[in-house]
Amino acid sequence: MSNLLESYDVEFKTLYESTKLEISNGSSSKTTTIRNLEINKDDLLEILEQMNIEVNNTGSSTEEKSKWRSYLRNLKNDLQKDIVDPLNKLIEDENRNVLFSTQGATPEVDNGISYMDEEQRQQLLDSHHILNKTNKRLMDAQRVAMDLLENIKHRAIARIQSIDHKQFFRLVIIIGGYILLRRLAQRELAKRQLANQIKADQKRKKNQLMEGTDELYNDGKHDKEPTAFGWGNKTRYRVKKQQEMLGQAIDNLKKRQQQQQQYSTAYNDDSDEDIADLLED
Q: Which of 51, 198, 236, 249 is most buried by a 10 A CB count?
């Protein structure tokens, strides 16, 4: 590994031991001491972050990177157990001491400061305790999620780096074949859907045409229905047309016969009148 990573490691261990010792002697802590401890905690977290970045950016082998990542996870767990949690406990105790420093005082104003009663102090302590527990759970969940994502990322990178040229080309061929087959399947499915839609449209138009033909057969102009002998629609329609044409021909023939009878009657009347005139003369 690089010299920068080793220097980070030495700096972290030095600051870690001094901060741990200061926390262990912080039973009679003050606000300034707690602030210094918080600054040291932030510095330690920043050093761990820089070490993590350095491990990811170095060109070392995958096995060596895995060892350093495991080492950094152990350092982070030790930091949480030996510094972060005790520091939170100190902060909570300090806040409790500040709140209870006025215990037994009256709610009257003393030097311009109005003290709270016991019930208000207890409510503040309970709220502060709940907030600390919630914050700790959120930090733990965030740490677990970050570790999980980090492990997944490192495994994926290690898996990609361990693939040789043959496996890489095989993977490319498999992915390319899958994409090609997927497109062909989608195109074939679209063609089948279009063909089914065309067939459905043709069937619908045919049904509409048959319904229109049935309405024409059942029109009021054709009141007298011919006797059905199991013929088809076209045959019945043809017979009905022939019957209509035959009826029209019979009607025309009757009209002509009536006209001929009228002409012959008129001619006979005129002849009888001429004969009567001649006889009178």
A: 51
Tokens 């229109």 belong to 212
Q: What is the pLDDT of residue 113?
A: 41
Burial per residue of 133-160, b for 16 or more beta-carbon CB atoms within 10 angstroms, e otherwise: eeeeeeeeeeeeeeeeeeeeebeeeeee
Local structure of 105: helix, strand or coil: coil
For the record, the structure tokens of 133 come out as 């527990």
Token readout for 48 is 């761990």
Higher pLDDT among residues 188 and 158, named by residue: 188
* 169 Cα distance to chain centroid: 33
Taking alpha carbons only, the member of 213, 215, 240, 211 closest to residue 225 is 240
Instruction: Tally Cβ neighbours within 10 Å of residue 218.
Output: 9
Q: Identify the DSSP state of 108.
A: S
Classify 220 as helix, strand or coil. Answer: coil
- pTM above threshold 0.70: no
Amino acid at 245: M
